[in-house]
Amino acid sequence: MTLQPNVSAPGSDPMTSARDVAVEVIGLSKNYGAVRALASVDLKIAAGEYFVLLGPSGGGKTTLLRLLGGFIRPSAGTVLLHGHDVSALPPNRRPTSMVFQSYALFPHMSVARNVGYGLKLQNMPKAEAKDRIAAMLELVGLTGYDARMPHELSGGQQQRVQLARSLVLERDVLLLDEPLAALDAKLRKDMCLELKHIQEKVGITFVHVTHNQEEAMTVADRLAIIAEGELIEAGTARDVYERPIKRFTADFVGERAIFDGTVASAEKTGVQLDLGFGTIAVKAPAEASAGAKASVSIRSELLELLPAEGKAPAGFETLEATYRESVYLGLTISHVVSLPDGSEIAVRDIAGAGPAKLPEAGAPVRIGWKAEDASLHLS
């Protein structure tokens, strides 16, 4: 079957040709009766990009991935793969392959037979299949494991076999559903780097679902935050971490102090936010009018613990606080302080780089930060 490109799909970007976009979804929704699993998502993923869907469990990430793979049908909207509308096509008629959270290997088949299973279904000549299987095993670092059985492999090795089995089909888009969730922390870190290197070698599009932020930051060229069935925001890993647009993202990604308040004034040079117990300035475009609800967030590693008395460093915003305790985390120390409204936040510094003598519990202190390090969130 020859797919006809949908060149005039509503919502398409005229500045981006279908050749440049591997995956596009337009108004994609999925309902299970009265339950909304995904709500009118619009998203583009470039060809050759490592794209991550990140968010809390139950937020809709896997639903979106399964809609891309054709394992479930959308309630509304369109799925385009390389410009072709595949919304009604089953998985075997889409240019995608899937790596599942569980290893899903055939226990009675050797590594080579597991990897070559899809090629056998395609009736590929044995000699050609053997060469391709060998190439895939080399790619995932399992040369010489051809005859091993799944039960003779570690968890990481089994996941490599599943990856090879998907890649050997030479599809354009690889879908990965929490592929590292079953691995321990050390192995997960190693496999993150392996996945990124493999994606760079094969050059195809990877779409990777995870709830693990470190995993997402390690592999992603870009990522999207998915929660409560909605796409919250998308961007590079650095942009989403350092300059989140939405309050949800600021609260979910990394560790941030978040202050909720009311816009006292808005100028071209920035915004004054009234917290009820103090006012802070944010160097941000004046997109909100006075009286609007807004939030300000600052990464905890950019906060500083300051004495209660004395002059703050130039360009700093400060708030009065009460010192509660310190928590040693190895590389960093987290200083917990409470604000006048009773809320608690953490100030993080490198272990040994903070104050030589820590304040006593209950002592008055201040927290401070550079005004340009704060992000304003209007929603």
Can you put this structure into words, describing what you see?
The chain has 379 residues and is of the alpha+beta class. The protein folds into two domains: 21-95 and 171-242, Rossmann fold; 255-377, RNA polymerase II/Efflux pump adaptor protein, barrel-sandwich hybrid domain (OB fold (Dihydrolipoamide Acetyltransferase, E2P)). Helices cover 22% and strands 35% of the residues. It is built from nine helices and 20 strands. The strands form four sheets. A six-stranded mixed beta sheet has the order 6-7-8-3-9-10, sandwiched between helices. A five-stranded antiparallel beta sheet has the order 13-12-11-14-20. Strand 7, helix 6 and strand 8 (205-210) form a beta-alpha-beta unit. Helix 4 packs across helix 5 and helix 6 runs parallel beside helix 7. The longest helix has 18 residues, at 185-202. The chain is elongated and about 80 Å long. The two termini are 46 Å apart.
Structure characteristics:
9 helices, OB fold (Dihydrolipoamide Acetyltransferase, E2P), alpha+beta, 5-stranded antiparallel beta sheet, Rossmann fold, 379 residues, single chain, elongated, 2 domains
CA gyration radius, whole angstroms: 25 Å
Q: Order of SSEs, N→C?
A: EEEHEEEHHHHEHEHEEHHEEEEEEEEEE
Q: What proportion of the residues is helical, as a percent range?
A: 10-25%
Helices and strands: which structural class? Answer: alpha+beta
Q: Using the coordinates shown, work out and report the CATH topology of the largest domain.
A: Rossmann fold
Q: How large is the share of residues in beta strands?
A: 35-45%
Contiguous low-pLDDT stretches (5 residues minimum) are 1-19
Helices, by number, come to: 9
* Total DSSP E strands: 20
The profile of the biggest β sheet is: 6 strands, mixed
Distance between the termini: 46 Å
Shape: elongated
CATH homologous superfamily label of the largest domain: P-loop containing nucleotide triphosphate hydrolases
Annotated CATH architecture of the largest domain = 3-Layer(aba) Sandwich
